[in-house]
Amino acid sequence: MSKMIVKAPVVQQREIAKSVYQLTLHSPELTQQAVPGQFIHLRVTENYQPLLRRPLSISSVNRDAGTLSTIYRIVGQGTMQLSTFKTDAIIDCMGPLGKGFDLQCHTPLLIGGGMGLAPLVFLAQRLCPRPLEILMGGRNEQELFWQTVYRDICDKIHITTDDGSLGRRGFTVDILPDLLDKGTFDRIYACGPRPMLEAIAAIAKQFAIPCQVSLEEHMACGVGACLSCTCAGTDGKRRKVCTDGPVFWAGEVFG
Amino acid sequence: MTAEHNLGLLSVNIAGIKMKTPVMTASGTFGFGLEYSDFVDINKIGAVVVKGTTLLSRSGNSGVRIAETPAGMLNSIGLENPGVEAFLHETLPVLAKYDVPVIVNIAGNTVEEYGELAKQLDVKGVAGLELNISCPNVKQGGIAFGTNCESAASVVRMVKKSTGLPVIVKLSPNVTDIVEMAKAVEAAGADAISLINTLLGMAIDIHNRKPILGNIVGGLSGPAVKPVAVRMVWQVAKAVKVPVIGMGGIMTAEDAVEFMLAGASAVAVGTANFVNPYATVEIADGIREYLNQQGLMQVSEIVGKVRTEEW
User: Fold this and answer.
1) Looking at A77, A97, A117, which one is the last position of a domain?
2) Most buried one in A9, A120, B85, B230, CB count within 10 A?
């Protein structure tokens, strides 16, 4: 499997929630190779403002159509500029980058917090037709438009919100032990803010359920050269989020 | 024009290091070279300058390590690297498969450490050393040697005593008088001078009032620093006899030619690799095109040819 740079035409750019966009690109080469958990690295301008590419997780792939999409929130200049690309515009796209999820399981539980739910869509697609349950957390109901995204792919959706406007009030980890008690999960896949992942990793360890986490870091090169994104591994060695990850076994990065 | 002729058009010899093109990679931006092998033919690069290497492995700085700034970026990696032994046993054998000069950037905490590194790296497969006396991101060593002429000279003397390899000294722009530094390292025996390392900078998140970088300050690179770098290359190239390797914000062949006109015999491409992994090879192609347009036979013909006398 090799990394490449393609000039990918935009098939569709759509605002799916307030300030959240789904960008669909046409690239049969990328769609053939991409696995869940990997990311693409997009150049949002030919000029130098902003200078660096933007790493975005692949949130779905349609091999028949040769398209892949990413779901992102406008958080700064780069994503703002990305949101202006219209159908047929060409985007300079590096990918597929990073190491994806291990799919060897029977009864997985997906856990996503906020925009961490983006890469799990692609994962859920590939895990089908296995029985799928997802636990999602967000600040409020508005942020959890994700339930409509997952409704058709997951058998059960569990929801928590910080303000209680949807599902249980609290964090995903508040109801996780209860879910694990009742369920028969043999794998946990999690993506979201680092403190959430750390807490999930600890609970997974208690329950002795193999757990994979997808990390997010500030990144420049995306190929393991600049070392902007490295984090400490539990064995004392550094891990590059861009090439050793972004998906790690929880035990590799959380003690 | 034959292909062979075209090859000669771009070839340079920097202190005995023969390169197919004058376009090298800048240390710290190209990993160990292999990270980019999916994108560029490593054999087509002038020289691969590998990530700053220290005696023992270093885990680098904690917290956020990069921040984007207008037409540039700040970094505070802090010389994360696996150490010289891992480089010699794991990386060098793989790099040896390519037909490209490998230059190792070295950084020490003491003069003696530079000497020890130089000794250990005097092996087949290493074409030269670049002394990192200008890393702005580590407390000991690094920039402490690069901002004082006498300390810089003592590092160079020690390294020259410890190795037979060509020694390139990388200068910090964070000094009052870059020419004085260049002359000091030349007098101490430097075979070539490379400049500039990053400019010390800082960025603040106004919402939480915290510095963006975990290390508070970091090194500025990218197009934003280019005019400063061109000026310093011009000043230094006029003042020394050893070849100068120019770097600082080179994104295109036009940028590279600008550095060469200012006096650089070769150039290094850094931050551009992050944006465009093909940059090194594309820039070499662009220089070739420029030389052809100008009807020149060899890239050395443009070195230092800025026409300042007419102003």
Assistant:
1) A97
2) A120
The alpha-carbon gap from B297 to the nearest alpha carbon of chain A, in Å, equals: 32
Task: Mark which residues 37-66 of A lie under 8 Å from B by CB.
Answer: 43, 48-53
Residue A253 has φ and ψ, to the nearest 5°, of -120, -15
Q: How confident is the model at residue B6 (pLDDT cuts 50, 70, 90)?
A: low
Query: Across chain A, what does the average pLDDT equal?
Result: 96
Tokens found for residue B216: 């508070």
Tokens 């400019």 found at? B199
First to last CA, chain A: 31
Instruction: Check A225 against B273: CB less than 8 A apart.
Output: yes
Interface test with chain A among B65, B69, B91, B281, by most A beta carbons within 10 Å: B65
Q: What is the pLDDT of residues B95-107, one digit of tens each?
A: 999 999 999 999 9
Residues A165 and A80 in one domain: no
Contact predicate B168/B15, CB 8 Å: yes
Contact between A188 and A135 (Cβ < 8 Å): no
Q: Mean pLDDT, chain B, as a whole number? A: 94
The pLDDT-based confidence of B3 (bands split at 50, 70, 90) is very low
Q: Name which of A33, A91, A226 to mutate to probe chain B: the one with the most chain B Cβ atoms within 10 A of its Cβ.
A: A226
pLDDT for residue B4: 47
What are the domain boundaries of chain B?
3-59+79-201+220-310
Q: What is the DSSP letter of B176?
A: S
Question: What pTM was computed for the model?
Answer: 0.94
pLDDT for residue B92: 96
**Confidence at residue B248, expressed as pLDDT on a 0 to 100 scale:** 98
For B3-59+79-201+220-310, give the CATH class.
Answer: alpha beta
Q: Using pLDDT thresholds of 50, 70 and 90, give the confidence band for residue B134.
A: confident
Q: Is the pLDDT of residue B143 over 80?
A: no
Judged by CB atoms closer than 8 Å, whether chains meet at A225 and B36 is answered as yes
* Tally of domains within chain A: 2
Q: Which positions in chain B have a beta carbon within 8 angstroms of at least one beta carbon in chain A? A: 28-31, 35-36, 38-39, 51, 59-60, 64-68, 70-73, 75, 77, 80, 222-223, 251, 271, 273-278
A194-206 and A172-182 helices, crossing angle to 10°: 20
Cβ(A203)–Cβ(A211) under 8 Å? Answer: no
Asked about B135 being catalytic, the answer comes back as yes
3-state secondary structure of B192: strand
